[in-house]
Structures are given as C-alpha cells and as structure tokens.
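ok so heres the complex, four chains, lmk if somethin looks off
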Amino acid sequence: MAAHDELHQEVRDRLGRIDQLYTRGRQAIVDALVGAGTPLTLPALLEQAPDLTQSSAYRNLSMMEQAGVVRRLVHGNDHAHYELAEGLTGHHHHLVCRGCGVIRDVTLDRQLERSLDAAFSRIALDVGFRPETHDIDVYGICADCAADCSAD
Amino acid sequence: MAAHDELHQEVRDRLGRIDQLYTRGRQAIVDALVGAGTPLTLPALLEQAPDLTQSSAYRNLSMMEQAGVVRRLVHGNDHAHYELAEGLTGHHHHLVCRGCGVIRDVTLDRQLERSLDAAFSRIALDVGFRPETHDIDVYGICADCAADCSAD
DNA sequence: TTGCATTTGAGAATCACTCTCAATAAAGTC
DNA sequence: GACTTTATTGAGAGTGATTCTCAAATGCAA
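and the predicted structre for the whole thing:
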C-alpha cells in the first residue's frame, strides 16, 4: 500500500518535471502496468483498463515514456509492449517467446551485471561511444508454446 | 576473395534449403550488407545498391531472414536495420546510438558469453523457458553525436 | 461559478512494410 | 539458340500499428 502510494507519487513527480498532470487516465495506465506484472501490448492494456481509449492511451504512453515513467519494448512487427521504466521497477531483462510473443522479466545477479557494464565500458571507450543503458533479450520458447508444439 | 566466394556459396546453400534461387538481386543485397559492415536500413540499402527496388528488397530480406541469411533488428519506430545472420558472421551484439540511430557491432569475450549463457539457462529452467539466442543492445551516444551535442 | 489551459476521444492521416498480379528472368530440354 | 515451365521481379495498391487533428470535456485557480 505504502509502496503503491510512493510509486504514484514518484510518477506524479516525474510527470510534473515535464509539466504534465497525473490525470485519472494516466493513473489507470500505471495501475494496469503494475497489475499485469509483465509488459503489455496496447490491446492488452485496453483489456485491463476498459475505460481507456486507444488514442489517449497511445498518447499518454508516449508522453510517459518521455517522462521516464514508461518503457516501450519493440520485438518484431506486431504491437509494441509497454512496462514501467526501470527507474521505477529496477534494472531487468526479458525472455521473449518466439511462439506467442509473451515477454517475461528476469534479473541477472549483480556480479554478472557488473562484468557486463565493465565490458561495455571498455568496448565503448575504444570506439568513442558513451554507454547509458543496456538491454538483454533472450529469445526462445515459453513453457506454454513448448506444450502446444509437442501436442501438435 | 575465397572468403567472399565461400560466403556466397553458403548463402546459396541456405536459400536452396528452402527452395529459393540465389538471384542477381539477392546477391546484390548480400553484397551491400557485406560492404556496409554495419546494419543497414532499407533506404540505406537501396542507396548502396541502386538497382534494387523497394518491394523486392523487402520481400527478399524477409525471405532471407527465414532462410537464416539475414537478421532484422528493430529499435524504435523508424526503419528496421538488416545485417547478415550470426550464422554467417559470428555471434555479436550492438551499440545503438540514441541520437542518430546508427548501430555498431561489438563482441564480448568468450568467458563473459559463457557466463551469460549459463545464467540464462539457469533462469530459463526455473520458469520453463527454452532459450535459443540472446541479443544485447547497449544504448548510448556515439562519438559523432557527442561532438554535435557539445557543438550546440 | 467563471474563465483559461490542458487533456480527451473519435476518426482521419501517416508511413513502414506487405500483398497483388502482369511482365520478366532463370533453369532445364531439345 | 528457341521453347517450356516455373520462380522472381516491379509498380502500385493495401494493411495495420501508431500518430495527428480539433472540437468537446475536464482540471485548476480565483
């Protein structure tokens, strides 16, 4: 409860920094993303929060992405997925199912993350690139799709 | 030269496996991707190989992706980038510039890759996910964009 | 409440990409 | 080479996720 209120306050602050109000519709988006616990496509988001309309949802997701509240994930030709930004949820990566497209959050242990950051910093320095964040996607087949395939 | 011929032969084999010919236009695409040495958007590909037409290029890239010859990279709302598949070039990752969108290939040392694979396998096992490949994108600012920013 | 600025909603517009189908090139046969 | 058959190409129409437009609704200050 307290954590939930803190989250909303943090979102309100981040929106305020770019002169945006934390309206009812925007709160509904954040609640849906929190409730799902997994990145949602826009149609899935509208199912979770039926009061939202498509155009406003897209507009608000885009604005909240700029505000550092939402992250947009793109993995192909179909709908993008949206989740809360890492600043609100913590650094993590994704398992992406090639079958159904579902995305699942995972974390690596600190030591491995440190090794990665060190490696990227070293590589980046060589080519004059200033690294900010990294994003690891593991592609494969989820349990549900594996079951479906063997059933066929 | 020999390496170049071997590459083309390997591409021809991979296309043959799905009953596709290695036509002049398809060779031009592969040559352009080899020549660029960095992932290309479709407009950039057409610049490199002006004899190609848009619809055929898209159709052939899509088919060659299925054949395991080409990989399609998606990083936002604009054009996707295309490069030769890892089976032809070796496993690598990408530095992606937030400023201009340019993508640069990088490799991690074997030991770190092994650690990552082991970590992903462990995580995946826990959730019943069968990992196949992984893809690491490092987002940041390239040298050219950093120079432009400080010039402003 | 009254006024002013921001946000919303419905639908039109955009644009990367895919599809269609007649014209063309490739591969095999003689 | 000429002929047949099959696969590919090119130009433009179509698709669909996302963005834009603008009048109506809402939020906020006094």
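quick notes: Residues 92 and 107 of chain A are 5 Å apart (CA to CA). thats all i got rn
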